[in-house]
Amino acid sequence: MNRQGKEIHQREDVNPEEGIKKYGDVEFADPVNHKYPLDTPEHVRAAHRYINQKDNAGKYKAEEVKLMKERIHQAAGKFGIEINED
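RE: above sequence
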């Protein structure tokens, strides 16, 4: 469960350990599956691009996508990145 009290489901098509192996122990927009790292400006921009792709967003419930977008926007603010929504 995340800090905001909402949960993202464990995806069957993802091995969460892969995200840790690839990115390390960093903050993720999806902390359950370790997807969409938010540790660098480049990763934040990439997370924003990917979660706004229909095929990626379609793997989550609408509430989960909204939660991940909120996390991405918060991370963007920390790095001084302006994000235009869709």
